[in-house]
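Progress narrative, work stream C.
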Amino acid sequence: MQIAIYSRNSVARQAEGTSRLAWRLRDKGVTTLLYEPFFYSLSSNERELLQPIVTLFADAKELSSEVLCLMSIGGDGTFLNAASLVFGTNIPLVGISTGRLGFLPSVSIDKVEEAMRCILAGDFDVERRTLLQVEGCADQQQYVLNEVCLQKRGAPIAKINVHINGELLNNYWADGIIVATPTGSTAYSLSAGGPIVAPDAQCFIVSAIAPHSLNIRPVIIPDSSLLELEMATREGRLIVGVDNKSYELPTSTKLRVQKATATVGLIKLKQINFYQTLRKKLLWGSDARG
């Protein structure tokens, strides 16, 4: 049996958590595959301790069917990077959180050994999450777990035309527009005033960023929809964000956004659920009156 571990920051907590996890897995007779760039970001002492017990990998092509799961150690950004390695594969992902607010990593670092026992015992479900397929922002199509965001570059307000299945939704005057999946509803979309959506809902959320008109509100549409996004601005350039990557492109760029045929699997431990995470992260039910 093999388990792959991904992290992108060699800060003390990630390094310590990764080393402890790798040794525990070795004690269980599990082969640990460690993301190569992370390994070489560690100190020489940390690398020396891990060298005998890990095998390095650089991309998903090096992960075989024997890999039980990919563990991401870090925050939401780390999780999104890890997810991009396994888009469209049967390798499920589980996030070990070393941050404070992130919604994607579901297991706190102090609960990692308990989670590991459940995973090794097969005591978990795999939840398939919807991905967006984005065309027009790079030479090849992009797969997105959270959101695609079209934003102005510079000060002037922009006009963004949004069509759904060939029909005009709106000509938005705003700083930008977000198209989010249910998974991404707790990310940038939430900051822009979008609703929280259960991850198994079959929809997308369209939210304007700082709209010029106060009567503009987020719109929920079926995930069978094809969206076309186009921006006009005096700057001549725009920023396209796909999860935690961004591209600066000319305003002649047109984006096509739709549901991807590929998905990504997230490990769902039976003692953790989405609503429990909401209550914990957003402090619902807490009395803030002191």
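Work stream C, second folded protein:
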Amino acid sequence: MKNHSLYIFDIDGTLCNLDETDLLPGRKERLNELVESGAKIAIATNQGGVGFGLYRKSKGKPFDEFPTEQEVLDRLAGILHNIGHQVPFKAAFRYYMKWEKAWSPVPADREDEPFWSPDYRKPKPGMLLDHLAEHAVSPANAIYIGDRPEDEGAAQAAGCDFMWAWDFFGDERPENC
């Protein structure tokens, strides 16, 4: 496998199970190896439940089973604590509602914040492009590791390499993939 300068990881299904902060087996060790080798690591994750919850609230429907922005940020803080390294992260809170052909609402005066930008929602490459710029790494020297077709699409759109999480971490390939 090619060595990269920047390794960007998805969260759910890649580093952790959905709604959990505990890392999946072998993750912490592999991330430590990367950091010790001098590579940079970062996180880019869709967290559209935040936007979908706002949509449901705007329609007067139950929304409490969806996380708030603060709950997602708290969960990410727990994951970062478990990783044990300072890791920059990007998250996409918007949700595209296909049945309405529209994006979820955005909290007042937050439209210009990157985490609420449609360009951050994978498979769009916004999160990856921002990580590349912030780390001054070319796409040819970066890889995105994820578990969903949207992850692969974001990597392709950003010009980065891509690897499935199970291949990167040496896990058994899930049956549904």
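The longest helix spans residues 69-83. No further action is required on this item.
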